[in-house]
Amino acid sequence: MATAxxxxxxxxxGNDYVVFDLFGGDSRKAFDKLSESELKSFAxxxxxxxxxxxxxxxxxxxxxxxxxxxxxxxxxxADGSEAEMCGNGIRCxxxxxxxxxxxxxxxxxxxxxxxxxxxxxxxxxxxFRVDMGSPRLLRKEIPxxxxxxxxxxxxxxxxxxxxxxxxxxxxxxxxxVVFADDANIDIDAFDIEEMGKEIENHxxxxxxxxxxxxxxxxxxxxxxxVWERGVxxxxxxxxxxxxxxxxxxxxxxxxxxxxVHLTGGDLIVxxxxxxxxxxxxxxxxxxxxxxxx
Length: 293
Known about the structure:
By secondary structure, the protein is α+β, with helices and mostly antiparallel strands. It folds into two domains: about 5-135 and about 280-290, Roll (Diaminopimelate Epimerase, Chain A, domain 1), CATH 3.10.310.10; about 140-275, Roll (Diaminopimelate Epimerase, Chain A, domain 1). About 20% of the residues lie in helices and about 40% in strands. It has helices spanning about 25-30, 35-45, 85-100, 190-200, 240-250, and strands at about 5-10, 15-20, 55-60, 70-75, 80-85, 110-115, 115-125, 125-130, 155-160, 165-170, 175-180, 210-220, 220-230, 230-235, 255-260, 265-270, 275-280, 285-290. The protein has an 18-stranded mixed sheet that branches. A hairpin with a 4-residue loop joins strand 9 (about 155-160) and strand 10 (about 165-170). The mean pLDDT is about 95.
């Protein structure tokens, strides 16, 4: 790819992405020529924090072929794997679509297509409220090995040197939630990489999993550290925050509306009566530029 590709560096609470506007122009033509393996290699180079731009992943903003929809989001992680959904990323895409004038609804209510389905976003005063859909709990939906129609709530998981307990939730992508107190973890001091990597790649998760480590502060607040599949520890994770709140409610540790304190900032997550999970938080620009790759 010899074309100079324009990009915008964006983040949602420090979960950072290199965003490419592919609604037309030379960038769209250049990406259309890439094979999937070339796209994977490209993402890995771009996301390298020493030799590239540096990011947790790249986001591709594409026009939707569906009438009444505002766009399509693709997410490629720093390791080149493609993710089904990203809560922080979709807020960035929503902001980009609004600021570029691609949003079809003057009330700034967007519909964005992802691999995990259509997501609806409402933008108000610099904040973005995302309808993340209903959580999926069956093992076949995570996906997770074992009885297909069973759920995994506070389920023992044997690791190499210890046993822990997890609650598994899919928010369009897989999550394993660990409660720090139950696992005897000091959430501020322990090595998240060792445990996060082992759970991510555990044989019970055929497509690997994201891992959330939760400390419950009270019925309406939690602290959260996140190990993202294909990325490593990140400053924030939107789908992970939603999965953590669902897991908290299932284990009767909090209510269904929770302030989630992440390393990069706060999200408000509500598991509403309609069974949908709603996530509210910001999105921001860092800088723009062009790269020849």
